[in-house]
Amino acid sequence: MDRAEAAAKEWARERPELPMLPVETVGRLLDAAARVIRDHMNPLLKEAGLNVGEFDVLTPLRRAGEPHMLSPTQLYESAMITSGGMTSRLDRLERAGLVERRPDPNDRRGKQIALTTGGKRAIDDLIGPMVALEERLISVLTSAEQETLNALLKKLLTGL
């Protein structure tokens, strides 16, 4: 019995009128996400001197293509965090020499966040091991199950 099932059984005993499938399903999603980050991603990123939040800032910059530059708004929307949270991450990444703030060529008042050569190297060094880790994590599922899970998660996220 996993933690989500145990919690659902306890709630069913205490509040039998409530549906328990949502409790188990969302509980498993949250547990899986927490365990993937805590037990698998964090150790890999720690070796590179990063955390998941910082990795989530660097990867959209790398995916953006040359010149690997985005506005702070584009970054915090892609990382799904607050602008305040983004500012502290950018400050840390800038101090580490992984990003730099540059004037926005289209808005004299604005700034763009650019990936430095060191930041690009850090992401390029990490992305292969990260994808291998993700591949290993879902390898308990068949290819068909992976496709189904991916489609269902996409549908769920679209509805949120």
From TrEMBL:
Record InterPro entries: HTH_MarR-typ (IPR000835), WH-like_DNA-bd_sf (IPR036388), WH_DNA-bd_sf (IPR036390)
Family annotation (Pfam families): MarR_2
Domain HTH marR-type: 23-158
Coiled-coil regions listed in the entry: none
SUPFAM superfamilies: Winged helix' DNA-binding domain
Keywords: DNA-binding, Transcription, Transcription regulation
GO molecular function term, any single one: DNA-binding transcription factor activity
Protein's name in the database: DNA-binding MarR family transcriptional regulator
UniProt organism field: Rhizobium fabae
